[in-house]
Amino acid sequence: MWFRNLQLYRLGQHLDLPPEALDERLQSAAFRGCGRLELTASGWVPPLGREGRQLVHAAGGYVMICSRKADKIIPAGVVKQLLDDKVAEMEAAESREVYRKERQRMKDDIIHGLLPNALTRHTDQYAYIDTRNDLVVVDSPTPARAEALISLLRTTLGSLKANPVKVKHSISHTLTRWLGGERLPPGFALGEECELKHPDPDGGVITCRHQDLAAGEIRNHLKNGKYAVRLAIHWKDRLSCLLQEDLSLKRLRFGDVVTQGEDADADDAATRFDLDFSLMTLELNEFTAQLLRALGGEEAPD
Description:
By secondary structure, this protein is of the alpha+beta class. 35% of the residues lie in helices and 26% in strands. It has three domains: 7-74 and 117-164, no CATH class; 76-116, no CATH class; 171-294, no CATH class. The chain has helices at 19-27, 76-94, 100-114, 143-157, 171-179, 216-223, 256-259, 269-294, and strands spanning 7-11, 40-44, 57-59, 62-73, 119-130, 135-138, 162-164, 188-197, 205-209, 227-235, 239-244, 249-254.
């Protein structure tokens, strides 16, 4: 349940739905699975998984939700082989060439025929809504996957003003200054990984791992014109992550001082989930607020 990646969205207006009302709205778009002739399907599932029935898990002003996407797995190589065989058979039987539009129709027919017996892959996407600070935090490694959840939520609710959080200053410039020797804000420290890029496409990209980022070698790269596009940071020995130039946070890891609450007694899976959720959200609430200040402050939404 502990998030490993973060994509941040700012709500354009306060979400006035209480958890019970939000759950009722999500039930209208609950995950039903793929039909026999559907390639993909999406909907909402209980954050607690098999242990829960509610589509919303609320605690302390934070609301956890989970979307699920189903995709039928139809290997492209199988489709190509079947199509090639069918085209060759038709061209030999009718002594003519099969052109692009007809090939496409034949390909669609093949996929349609394979759908009923195709295997299905499920992908779950977690997020929580900070109802007090009007923030949506999505556990996603890429903005595109996070946007899929936001889009589903927007469709389910009818409308939702939610946009990726932006800061006032260039994140790359800030990360480059930190690597160049500028003192980091209180509570933050350099990790051991960074990626440097040159403005010239032919200037190359350098990825450094398990290195002292305050070393002269790193600063020499900066003097030669490279700038930082991702940087590993630590925060108060409580968590670490890889901060990217688009404000995506990857490889989020919570320290033992945060997760030690996991050792507390829990009667059941729901109690354990509730405890972990409370610990994580309280920690991320403080961290994200301090991170945005460290990056120069949040840019006002349009």
